[in-house]
Amino acid sequence: MFTAVALISVAFGIGANTAVFTLLDQVLLRALPVRDPEQLVLLKWRGSHYGSNWGMNSLSYPMYRDFRDDNQVFSGLLCRFGTTLSMSHTGQTEQASGELVSGN
């Protein structure tokens, strides 16, 4: 009985360490899956916020379209907006975190 408990404890320990390392490896240690990650920039808006944007680091969709269409500086431009979504499956509805992202 002692051997079985010891083996199960070691197995859970190895499994937990593997899961934690895999998560840290994916999030912190690996480079971003883009060609030149050091060239990524975040556009911030200063001053008054008009329309339906949500403050710092938020641009309205019409402003994003203007930046995208008239861009002469960046090789590409994308936008994202975090939001709460309602998802249902087999009659149960739950809230989930999600993002609205541009198609590019």
Topology:
Layout: H1 2-29, H2 61-69, E1 80-89, E2 92-101
Antiparallel strand pairs: 1-2
Describe this structure in words.
It contains 2 helices and 2 strands, in the order ααββ. The protein has helices at 2-29, 61-69; strands at 80-89, 92-101. The longest helix has 28 residues, at 2-29.
Give the CA-based shape: elongated
| Beta-strand residue percentage | 15-25%
Largest beta sheet, briefly? 2 strands, antiparallel
Which regions are unreliable across 5 or more consecutive residues at pLDDT < 50? Answer: none
Mean of all residue-level pLDDT scores: 83
User: Radius of gyration in whole Å, from Cα?
Assistant: 22 Å
The helix-strand sequence is HHEE
User: Helix share of residues?
Assistant: 25-40%
How many individual β-strands?
Answer: 2
N- and C-termini, Cα separation: 58 Å
- Strand order, main sheet: write it out: 1-2
Discrete helix count: 2
Counting helices, strands and paired strands, the structural category is alpha+beta
Concise synopsis of the structure shown:
The protein is α+β, with helices and mostly antiparallel strands and 104 residues long. Helix content is 36%, strand content 19%.
Protein traits:
104 residues, alpha+beta, two-stranded antiparallel sheet, 36% helix
